[in-house]
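pipeline/complex-builder :: batch 7 item 3
reading input block
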Amino acid sequence: MARRSGCGWVLLLVSVLWLIPGSVSAQERLNAAVAANFIQAFTEISQAFERKTGVKVEATFASTGSLYGQIANGAPYDLFLSADEDRPGHLNREGAGERPFVYARGRCVLWSARKDFCRARDWRTALRGDEVKRVAIANPETAPYGTAARTALVQTGLWEALKQKWVFAQNIAQAFQYASTSATEAGFCAYSSVMSDEGKKGCFYRIEEAPAIVQSACILKRTPHRASAEAFAAFLASPEADAIKARYGYR
Amino acid sequence: MDWQPFYVTLKLAVATTGLLIVLAAPLAYFLAYARFPGKSLIEALVNLPLALPPTVIGFYLVVFMGPKGAAGRVWEAVTGGSLLFTFLGIVVASTLYSLPFAVQPLKAAFQKIDRRLMESAYILGLSRKATFLRVIIPNSVSGIAAAAILVFLHCMGAFGVLLMVGGSLPGETKVASIAIYEAVEAMKYREAGLMSLCFIPISYAFLLLVNRLNRGA
Amino acid sequence: MSLQIRVRKKLRYFEIDLDFSCPDDHLLVMIGPSGGGKTTLIRMVAGLETPDAGRIAYRGETWFDSERGVDLPPQKRRLGYVFQEYTLFPHLSLYDNAAFAAADRAEVDDLFARFGIDHLRGRKPHQVSGGERQRCALCQALARRPRLLLLDEPFSALDVVTRRCLREAVKGLREGLSCPILYVTHDINEALFLADEMVPIVEGRIDRGWMQRTIAPIPDSEEAPLRATRQPRLALVY
């Protein structure tokens, strides 16, 4: 007898848990696919947006390439904040995304967890040092920050010359992780990551030769929350959002 | 299609399998026959990689093998080089990751051997070690083969761990699974598709072999 | 007395408490109901199990002494042991099995001839019959020139006819062997046929009255015959 009623309780509990999420939150929710480098700025911006409008924006942070892959296969996001211009452009041409708009311009820097890394004359000299054995760079084929870094390295002739030092991370966040855990002596990271608490523990060089990374976003056509999505897109361009972005090094 | 990642994958699988069978055999022997308090704790520890997400394993390995970690520092002191982002580093990582896949089948194979065979060997004058090498191993050959194949296959599929620990260096740590992932990310879908297709017949063939060996045992 | 055994061991349902000895050239049969501790005793003599207390010595050499902390491993005792099954190594041929720890390989050929399995030397254990396997096991044990031969119900798993043949073989063995033989069985007929001396073990203890109770004595005998000689005074129950 006890056993049967025990089973009954379990079933009741499971069905309650199953039903709750759908019914309790009447609050509207947006799902955004966001490039990994924009994580801190995005968190603040979405919190400000929620305070203003009551609409919660939940984000999935990953490399632009994998997010694009998911969206191309029908993942149910409302917005896509990419780290490049190409992918939102693709989505628009394929008919999956609305017209893209630029939401931020990022810069690539060379960061190290060791402060004495930055005592050299410039970033090129620092890289050439013998004590710098490994340098993390996000995969240039798939991560826009990696592409920018490679452009700078090719331009200065270091890409081939220091080939044995490069370690490829899957995305800019992993590149930063390698550098901050000292798995590598330095890493090409997003300017925004050096502004973080972890980033402040180290030092960095600006890389003038690396082109600015133009980050585009787009609303996805299949979104059921078009009004809220457009409101958020507008908010991204507002002065309040700009101020937050500036604090993380985006222009 | 670039065949280099497959070459790295196969090299990794062969190296890990060889290393693991040698390392796991005494451990499996210990777990199969020895009786002591705390044995279940060790067994759970050995099985931990089964329960942990590969990225967790990878994360801790990066810390452990990195220049600040215990293993990394020892390695640096002894050889002057780094353990991370090298072929040896991913061999270590995939060995730990596949450990339970070697220990469990070996333990099962050893346990199937009747105790009296071992006792017969002792009475005839063989030490425990000699009994292990001359009696237990020859009589668990199909179990050993099954363990080897499982480890081999599991290695071929290793992804999350190697993603964290490998650094994706072409020709050294960029295995096929990572190459496929990167091809998808770079929108090179045809290449990704071709590489994925190649995996299936290889894995399937080995699985058939495992089946055969298990039935023959 | 060559082999001296005095052991105590606590088992699950009773305690083994035995004290007896076996002279050289004797075939001593341990008989009694199943689960009585006979196998445990023989394993303790072999060194495969450890008594809680006591002393086991052979010709003055101490194999086990709880007071002095001596416990010689089976490898060093140089015995022969034939189990009921799983004595032979499955991955080796019969010849390789017998020659495994042989003192002299030539003797293996002799033994094979004596036990009539020479024509099977190249076969593996699973390719021959149970009786042939046990013959090979005997060869394997004897090839080592053991100081003591232990047989634990070696023929219990075989059919009646094979058992009879092998019994005769063991009896014949007795003639040429100079070491003591400890033989465990629960088959009375086998015991009576082979024994120079019988030790009835019931629940871990020697029970001299067991024989009396299990086999009807000839009316005019007063004491329970403990030594079954070649002309036993008991009614044979073949």
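note: Chain B has one domain: 4-216.
queue -> next item
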